[in-house]
Amino acid sequence: MRELVFALEYEPGCNRVADALADHPDARVRSLSLHATAEQLWRVDHATGTPDALDAIEDAFLTTDYYADCLATEDCNATQTTNVLDRTDDTLVLYSDWERTPTCASVPHIARDYLGDGVLFETRHEGRHYTWRLIHSGEGDVAAFFDALEAAVGDCAQMEMLRAADTTTSAGGVDETQRDLSPEQEAALRAAVEHGYYESPREVDVGELAEHLGVPRSTLTYRLRRAEEHLAKQHVAGERVLEEPSATR
């Protein structure tokens, strides 16, 4: 099995879920989707945030003119049904069933066209930054998939390739600590250190650093957060390895 990880950074007004999350920076959406048929897709979204953030996210899913994950910029006449499975003060779970038309485009449908059946899609949506993780058989044409995706996205989003590798699984799932930082994450982390972002007090803020690197502020924030998460997990995993010999005596 092969893994592809990439990110889309949406421009304002291009994706209602991204707009809602940009207005509520502490909110997050994690999703799992899979094809039911060649044209039909099901998806479960798990959102966390404040009640106001969840109201905005729910509204984006339930009242949009077209499916929130569609890459079309206007109504493509797809048939979409979204239901609320669970709602608490800080959690919202949605189930969506979407049947596309010939004019619709989405990451899952483009992936099926070029990577074949049985592709699993796991996503993380923070602000305008939308990270996709695809697990596929390794067959198909990955280059053609990204060419078609780039054409479908157009000017609505910037696309960034993060990882392409064989999957590494164990009883506990994918081992996140074994993955290297992406080149973009490493560059962001290196620039942050060199320009004093981690000094106390800080010598540069994230906006100034983003301007220096020529990337959107939200993109830089995302890259730094993922890099910090990676390093923290590596550190904790290393401590566990050191503790194991003494624990077994």
TrEMBL record:
Start and end residues of each HVO-2928 N-terminal domain: 3-168
HTH bat-type domain segment(s): 181-232
Signal peptide: none
Domain of life: Archaea
Pfam families cross-referenced by the UniProt entry: HTH_10 (PF04967), HVO_2928_N (PF24281)
Keyword set, alphabetical order: Transcription, Transcription regulation
Stated name of the protein: Helix-turn-helix domain-containing protein
Species the sequence originates in: Saliphagus infecundisoli
